[in-house]
Amino acid sequence: VEGTKNCYITGYEAGELAAKISLVLENGKRSDGRNHIGHLAVGHVAEKLKMIYLALVEGNQ
Fold first, then answer.
1. What is the domain range of residue 34?
2. By three-state DSSP, how is residue 7 classified?
């Protein structure tokens, strides 16, 4: 989340959540969060899991 525009982390309290939602709505701009989560795309995660699996298999031989 760090460095993501128009994005906030809040606790579970309604007032805190409402305040952050208000900030986003007042700003009126979109978040650039998609630019920050590319590493979580299915293909990237699958490739990482495959590499971990292969390393484990090779280590057990």
1. 14-59
2. coil
Q: Is 9 within the bounds of a domain?
A: no
Which residue reads 């906030």 in tokens?
8
Q: pLDDT tens digits for 11-52? A: 999 999 999 999 999 998 989 888 888 888 999 999 999 999
- Strand (E) or helix (H) holding 61: none
> What confidence tens digit (pLDDT) does each residue in 2-11 have?
889 999 999 9
The model scores a pTM over 0.90: no
* Structure-token match 């031989």, residue found: 61
- Distances 51 to 41, 46, 55, 57, 60 between C-alpha atoms, Å: 16, 9, 6, 10, 14
